[in-house]
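Why run this: before we spend reagent on co-expression, it is cheaper to look at a predicted model of the complex and decide which construct boundaries make sense. The entries below are exactly what would go into the expression plan.
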Amino acid sequence: MEYARDPSRHDVNDPVPNSRISLSVLRNWVSLSGLLVAAGGLFSFLLLLALDAFARNANPYVGILAYLIAPSFVALGLAMVVLGLFLERRDILSRREGKLLTFDLSRPRDRRRLVVFGVIGGVFLLVSAIGSYRSYHFTESVAFCGQACHTVMEPEYVTYLNSPHARVACSECHIGPGAEWYVKAKISGLHQVYATAFNTFSRPIETPIRNLRPAQETCEQCHWPKKFAGNMDLIFYHYLADSTNTPYTVRLLMKVGGGDPARGPVGGIHWHMNVANKVEYIATDEKRQVIPWVRVIDPQGVVTEYRTPSFKDDPSKHTIRRMDCMDCHNRPTHIYQSPNEAVDLSLALGRLDPRMPEIKKEAVKALLLPASTREEGLRKIAAALHERYRDDPRLEKTIAEVQAISRENFFPEMKASWKIYPNNIGHKNWPGCFRCHDGEHATSDGKRSIKANDCNACHVILAQGVGKQLENLSAKGHAFQHPGGETGDMKCSECHNGAGP
Ligand code: HEC
Ligand code: HEC
Ligand code: HEC
Ligand code: HEC
Ligand code: HEC
Ligand code: HEC
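The model came back. Tokens follow.
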């Protein structure tokens, strides 16, 4: 190591005039390391840009890595360079030249130092490359989407884990491939991080999600319309809210149908999704629960328009939406069970004992107690059930099960539950199919209406009731024996809301 200053330029005994100090980043460790950090940041930035450009899916969070984190390393590095120069200048001024560096490549010791520095630098660049590559993939992972912002995403993550899509990555449905969604995804990603950091996100998270990609690009990667075929045999177990929890089961043959004219008849429920048919509608509310206008364009281009008598507007003044999977399957994975459904399921599976008097009613009631935190909700459940079943040996097990239902379906901190996320499949608790199939939507000449209130249009009731009655199968379909008595012309969802009968 030599003296840093060139003795030929200054007289060692002279005070050094500021303007004549020549500083060099290569003469102090701090600046040198700063250079390395900045280079690493720049390198990561370029690498992320390239990764993103060639990626199949537009990743909404890569912007945070590429435009926030990588540049902060560049900035940090540059700051270190400046700091190093500052320290160097101070050392020169106070003549502590011994601290400064020079390299003389003719000397073995300096050559060794240079090699060590080079190796450390290389390893650092490699590590930052691997680091940015891994964080890039991490931002696409279920762990990142579901757990990074823990409270915000807890409802979606928990319901997802309990759903048929628990092994499909969040990004498969929410991000997906394609250039058009690229920018939207970026903006939404930055917005979400901002909202989480500054606690401005809405509780609950609003739906329908405006920038969810069209179903053709998400769901249809795995379930394509032509593949659909046949009927589905669905069984719904219920228990009445009476003293003996009277069971009632209904078994439906659901006419899901299919969509490929080359392989079989096209029809059934998935008729809507036959690529050749185009069903469009206008919803007059945010949640798309009120649909007064529907238009069908068939493969020959024949247009049929249906509207309810009260809807007199010019359709072009409204947003017209093309119907897709999400208009029926809007809860394919974030399935918030209603208290009624969840308790029925627990009773059917024996996790709650149907022989406990009034357990259906009491369990539903306990789940409905208002609470603003998870802890409060669980405490209230325990207290209410304890009050009712004080001396019952099944008390502990019952409390544990009802609390488990609460944990999986109720999220007080985010105000998320079945109540605020309508489920559009079916028609019992929400209008669902009856938003259009209610008999009120007719053509202007009144000649045709959308198939309605024909209980066999979408499914037939194979069997219903309890015990032996369930062995009495009907291919043509039984008439519905409603356990709640006569209903007249009322829609199911006018009485049923998941919280009571
Ligand atoms: C099978 C496809 C699918 C998967 C997988 C999926 N989602 Fe969703 N997600 C949806 C649909 C459909 C909606 C409802 C959109 C609507 O109603 O507008 C939704 C809604 C949401 C919402 C809005 C609030 C709500 O509860 O409706 C959030 C937040 C969300 N998803 C986050 C996630 C996270 C986090 C994951 C992974 C842990 C995930 N999603 C996995 C399809 C999916
Ligand atoms: C990455 C592949 C993938 C994507 C994308 C996907 N799904 Fe699925 N889906 C699956 C798998 C796997 C299953 C489980 C298969 C089974 O149970 O037979 C499934 C099951 C289903 C079921 C049957 C559920 C049940 O109760 O058995 C429905 C309905 C469904 N998906 C709808 C959708 C909708 C709507 C979307 C778009 C929002 C979607 N899926 C996106 C893979 C996917
Ligand atoms: C008009 C409403 C409607 C539309 C639109 C719709 N579905 Fe369905 N789908 C249903 C009903 C009803 C069932 C029967 C299952 C049920 O009731 O839960 C079903 C069943 C399914 C199943 C389960 C089939 C099986 O054999 O397990 C899948 C998967 C599915 N749909 C995917 C889709 C996809 C993907 C789209 C969009 C291309 C779509 N559906 C569009 C109403 C619809
Ligand atoms: C946005 C309005 C809308 C919604 C919501 C809707 N449908 Fe439809 N559906 C239609 C229209 C329009 C037709 C065609 C009526 C016609 O022209 O005869 C139709 C036809 C049908 C058909 C007859 C298909 C055939 O073979 O001709 C079935 C079955 C059906 N829908 C089931 C369902 C089910 C089940 C749901 C709920 C999961 C549902 N629909 C929700 C608008 C809707
Ligand atoms: C437009 C199609 C359509 C029509 C018309 C229709 N249903 Fe349904 N129904 C469905 C679908 C879809 C489901 C399945 C919901 C699900 O998967 O959760 C269902 C479910 C049911 C269930 C079981 C609900 C439960 O939770 O136990 C009953 C009972 C039922 N329907 C009775 C009727 C009766 C009675 C009528 C005539 C007034 C009728 N349906 C007309 C589509 C229809
Ligand atoms: C006038 C109000 C009313 C209407 C409309 C109505 N229900 Fe009910 N429903 C009841 C009552 C009350 C009970 C008995 C509840 C109990 O004791 O638990 C009941 C019980 C049921 C049950 C069994 C218990 C349960 O908790 O699920 C089913 C399934 C059911 N109804 C389906 C339907 C369907 C499907 C429709 C539409 C076709 C419908 N209901 C329309 C009031 C109604």
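The chain has four domains: 18-138, 142-212, 225-332+423-495, 339-414. The radius of gyration is 33 Å. Bring this page to Monday's planning discussion.
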